[in-house]
Amino acid sequence: MVLRMRTLLLAGLVGWGLTQAESIPPATTLDQLQDQFRQVLSATSSPGAAWGIQVNSRRTGATWFGTNSASRFIPASNTKLFTAALALDRLGGDYRFSTSLRIQSPPNAQGVLAGDLWVVGSGDPTLCARLKGGSWEKAFAPLVAAVQARGIWRIQGNLLCDERRFRGPPYGSGWGWDDLAQYYGAAVSALTAEDNSLQVKALPGSRVGDPARLELLPLTSGLTLVSTVTTGDTNAPPRLDVARLPGERVLEVSGTVPLGAEPVVEEAAVPDPARWFGELLREALRRQGILVDGEIRILRAADRNAQPLDESTWTELAAVPSPAVGEVVREMMKPSQNLYAQLLWLAAGSEAERYPREGEEAVKSAATTEEAGQNVMNLFLQRNGFPAQEVVLEEGSGLSRKNLVSPRAVVQLLELMPRHAWGEAWMASLPIGGVDGSLKRRFQQPPTRGNVQAKTGTLRYVNSLSGYLTNSVGEPLVFSILINNFVAPTGSRSSREEMDQLIELLAQSRIR
Q: How far is CA 28 from CA 33, 59, 61, 468, in A?
């Protein structure tokens, strides 16, 4: 009888498709729910995929379902759950990044500064139009206002852009070289602006086959543009692809813009974020009538000993603070912003190096700031009793395939953080199904809409979702689903569809 019921259920799953949870009766016992989960997994369109699942009751901590829960999986952007926890724990939700403006001598009576303007960054990721009503100039307005407040209208020296707070490569450990030209693979810097990306805007020509006209906004950042973008038929799908070799300034753009269509816009990462910051600041100053006669000079961590600066001879004009880290974490988690995640990871490592706590001697011996962040993460995991070797993280965004976590460890983190001192900020940072962030277009119908609070994660052949929901009779649950090596035939169900089916089964269940 049990075998026959399972066979009928499997047939129903296949016949209705895995996105039709309402066709499956809500489970009223754990045995029924677990049987439904097993049947979904057995009906997967990618039999060779690896699934790791852990579902617990938030009320009792009891396991409702688990498979491969102690095994390690590539988590993709579920890594950001650990990065957010580290940032809130180490920095605190009220911590603010600071961008400092300094001069060596005051301006003369005519507002001329004879020397340099020194800009010192600490990793603030929020100087961007996206957070300032679409205007990058508004993002730089506090820095410009600080210069104006001292009556400076001309800088005869250089613009010194100091990114020395972070040591090491500008990319996270394990980031793929072919991601680095994309906005989601943007290089990191203690001086960051406009998400370290510019816009590539393509306008159609007057006839099919004509080259498209391209613009780089808001500035070119010294890039050489090589375009093969053409004007396509009116009904042709718009497409822009960008490519740039690491360290190169040649940006190659290909694709099609339909005849008579609106401009097509794509984002591309800039090759030198600190210089990009300097270019934007110089332009923002110029637009307010403040001229910089000299050059943009970059001070990098490797130059610390070769080009030391006597800080005692400088006076601070202003220290412009960022929003609180609790807000920065939310802006990182909701859209799954890789750059913000890596900057928070580096900030945690940097703060630990500058102000180590008892038992953190190993942090000071790190070769790079990223490694210091890794050391601090490991200390956080140890203090909170995470299973040994079930969390192996080398960078903060999840863009790397070197990161490994277990579903059990993810659930442990999800159980821990609501009780943390900054638990409210933690919960506020998670995307909400059918409402916002990376879940805005998922879980749009009851019982999941507005109910699922979870972090997504996607790489090629990798999908993950971990978070919270309440079932139909009010039982609060915590879950982690990690899928690796998912390769399915064209036209078959995706890993996301199969994953969402499991979430729908949880949400509709009537188990107390």
A: 7, 18, 19, 20
